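Checklist before submission:
- one chain only
- standard amino acids only
- sequence pasted in full

Submission:
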Amino acid sequence: MLNRTSLSLAAWAAMMLPLAGAHAQQTAAPLQPGPGEGLFLIVTDIHFDPFTEPSLVPKLDRSPVSDWSAIFKAGTGGNPRGYNHDAGYFLTRSALEAAAAQNMTYDYVLYTGDYLSHDFNSKYQALAGPSPQGHTSFAIKTARYVSHLLSETFAGSPILGVMGNTDSACGDYEIAPDSAFTAGLKDQWAALSRQPDRFDRFRTGGYYKVAHPTLADQDVIALNNIFWTPRYSDRCNSGGGDPGGAMMTWLKKQLEQTRQEGRKAQILLHVPPGFNAYSTVRGSGSCDSRLSPFWHERYSKGFLDLMREYSGIVDYTFSGHTHMDSFAIINDTDGTPLVASQITPAVSPIFGNNPAFAVFLYNRTSGDLLDSATFYLSNLAAAAQGAPPDWQLEYVYRSTYSLQDLSPASRSALASRIKSDTLPRQQFTELYAVKAPDNPIDSSNWQAYACAQSAVSEDAYEACYCAGK
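Returned file contents:
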């Protein structure tokens, strides 16, 4: 394993980039930490697809994770696939190597869920060959391989991850509590966090709490909030009780402990709070019947109540899931912005987005988010035909939107401007799908997306989106 901290970044890039044929321009870093400032990286929703070359699947199934890279390199498919596909080996390596080649050093790395590709089990059953080792074993190895690539690429950085809806040996939205899948990831994830003694609840529900990697008085609470989604089914463990309620109770206990110790917390989760604008605008019937919440109402209300009860303890949440670039604001009952929820775009382009990752500048004392830079694969269609993948800086947040920082107050002000001002609305629209050719936002539906930024409760979203409809 290479240790990036012992190499210059130029040397690291020279050694790593040829593996995936990536091309990332070596320019001055767009974010330059000042005294007392640092950087962290968010990668999300890779949806790693080990089935892109079917002939390799039986060998992958029989081999340890440590052999997988060599198996993929020996295959014949050397290009990323295009839109409407999950990320295979070459796109995944290209994205991670591009992130490592941006002339920036990351204090830590966050991965906000969805390690496995869509339709994972059905593809395994079709391609595993005559002597399969079992889809549970293969799902565990695939998720472990994604973490292996993260740790190999960012060897000097702690890595914190969360479960996504596809991250289950049972099926999509069917993560089973106390399962072989969570047991199979526990030791690896605990080691990558550098705090292995903090993972006592991980096997039970796939969630945990650790001390923040760099902030002396803050914690990171990583939730498995697939339990809170309307589509969640405990099909593979019907006696599992109420895992969503159990996690909510656990979260309240952790927040109370954090407050009693005079600390703060950041929350990692896969599915963001609020409403799914994409599904809402594609619904039928009356406006109120089309509203599509990301979470069950009782869990959403419970979470919002906790954020208000522990006002000042949590300022930020980090999520993925939508594959798009957005945010949401949790407000107090009087409208004061309390929590900024960052929604980072995906590496997988299966929903028409361009592959992307994001870097954040933060204050190493307070934890305040100061700025961010998003990078994207600018030539996905050409790369799928054999051109070198060309990763580019897409935009820098503060300069693009004329913000002071990325605080809840600044994000709330931006949400208001997007509703009322054509220029920031056009900017948000262009960046939402990471400059992809097929953008889901247009002049007829932008209100659904704008309302989702500032109205995360059902009453607030209905009042914002359905007014006049």
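Reviewer check: Residues 86 and 348 are 5 Å apart (CA to CA).
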